[in-house]
Prior knowledge:
By secondary structure, the protein is of the alpha/beta class. It is built from 26 helices and 21 strands.
Amino acid sequence: MDLVPALQEPLKKVLGPATAKVMAEHLGLHTVGDLLHHYPRRYEERGQLTHLADLPMDEHVTVVAQVADARLHTFASSRAPRGKGQRLEVTITDGSGRLQLVFFNAGVHKPHKELLPGTRAMFAGKVSVFNRRLQLNHPAYELLRGDSEETVEAWAGALIPIYPATAKLESWKIGKAVQTVLPSAQEAVDPLPDSLREGRGLVSLPEALLKIHRPQTKADIADARSRLKWDEAFVLQVALARRRHADAQLPAVARRPRPDGILAAFDDRLPFTLTEGQQKVSKEIFADLATEHPMHRLLQGEVGSGKTLVALRAMLAVVDAGGQAAMLAPTEVLAQQHHRSVTEMMGELAEGGMLGGAEDATKVVLLTGSMGAAARRKALLDLATGEAGIVIGTHALIEDKVQFHDLGLVVVDEQHRFGVEQRDALRGKGKQSPHLLVMTATPIPRTVAMTVFGDLETSVLDQLPAGRSPIASHVVPAADKPHFLARAWERVREEVANGHQAYVVCPRIGDEELDPKKAGKSAEDDAEKRPPLAVLDVAEQLARGPLEGLKVEVLHGRMHPDDKDAVMRRFAAGETDVLVATTVIEVGVNVPNATAMVIMDADRFGVSQLHQLRGRVGRGSAPGLCLLVTEMPEASAARQRLNAVASTLDGFELSRIDLEQRREGDVLGQAQSGARSSLRVLAVIEDEEIIAEAREEAAKVVAADPELERLPDLRTALDALLDEEREQYLEKG
Length: 733
């Protein structure tokens, strides 16, 4: 890669092996360039103190505060039985709150001399609770001596950058390392074309790097951030624009439905009319299918907005045109469910080659990993001969053995559960690139769609079909108000007495080995380290206790597929009153008679996941009820998250909240892998405008110069962003 050597210099040469090793292992920083792009999280002003009042539990924090009080105690312990143990308790304050620092035994001497009342310092450590008070154990600290010119210089005058740090490497040590490599910033290659940079009044990249790490004023920080945001947005959008440009060059077979074919016959059978949204989205899809380049479209729709129907009509259009369509589902339960609902919707049109099948009928086959050998052979033969126009399956569809006669369309359900490699393998099954339709019920804010799915065109189904009922959601604070939980079980009994059914969802199955270290690791769950509630335990307790006498069954991912299917069939037929399940019911499960859902330990689930789960009730004419049970205290962030879910049914609003809380993850790499984000200053929610403008600029640049021959510095930046893994990720689109 043709990067400027100064920025490629390994950190171990510049900072020494010990520091470089910690930076590589804990922060993923390997070169001078990596360190220069490790930006401060925020800045402290000397003279203005941090908010100790809202420190997060269990997290590594850096605070600037003043010592209010310091006391040395002696105590007896197994190590110091004669009362020779020493404990130094230092209280620090910042005006918003107080925090206790604790040092023990040999560790008390230095802080006892240095941390005198009135002293100001930066402290770094992990926040824990002792005797219901927040404290830092043996924090690292750096004194801020305002009178010493040299220290003030070292901390860059008035603004002290606070870096994302780790227990092994405090913020100020990172700051000192940055100081060492900062001169190299002069050699940074500027990826933005001059015309774009000057047109938007952005500072140069070397200047931006200098200002973000050593700002003299708040205006410096603002200049640097707006420039660096543009870099991230623009380089990313250029990568996506090149992907779209390359896709537009690929050949595909145009698939146009016959006016009197299977699609027309299917539409005639429908007992209802399509919503306006369904008609509009179908039109967009049919227009794409009629072109000689592969469609790449993302179909977003709230739970229950009728995405499956829209996808089925697209598949029938392809069958009409002589091709085959494949639908991929993330789980066997969902594949079986889709197969059932598609064959029910199609009726005799799904009975191709059978007695009683309609004239235009085709075969709809199911292909999953757990099928018997004979059924599997038959399904594979139907696909290879073209007898089956539609196949629905799981990852089993992408195995080498599976051959298609003429694959024209791939529909992927629930994109976020389905790896890019798998989509790519399936696309390779067509003689030419098949058309691709990706569906998701997780609403994605517009900017995220432009960023994460920037190579896909987007269609949105935002109307719910007639007949869907409202869902009331409530938080049940089980620890503060145990009688609320008792009332929740009464409500479930009332729903069953009225002829309805209920789900109870738990985070865990219950037969797995628990890692004692991780057992209770929820950020705010410090006071009570208990493992998440499990399906097998809860089902047994309910059947013996509050739901005694009702028919209770369990469903989870480790059951044999046939058993899962049998449980789902009994529940769908109304033979089971209460289904205690893991999140296997999160997508696609459709039982209109299920009206109530109780989600146990709801704080252990993400916002979007709770919204998905809730969408399983209220699918019939009776109103739905969703109860979010939690033991989290009222002031905790987890409770605020649950209150947000309870207060709105708008999935787009919730996905914004979810994203703000989770941050973006690595939008190019495996999105939630927890790897270091390729977005360091760009926030996909707040910076909507920059992303939209960068997308336009990128499209212009790529249209004029697809290979970026006239912009070698942009090409270099692109190579740096798209290391091999990400390059492949985009390639596979």
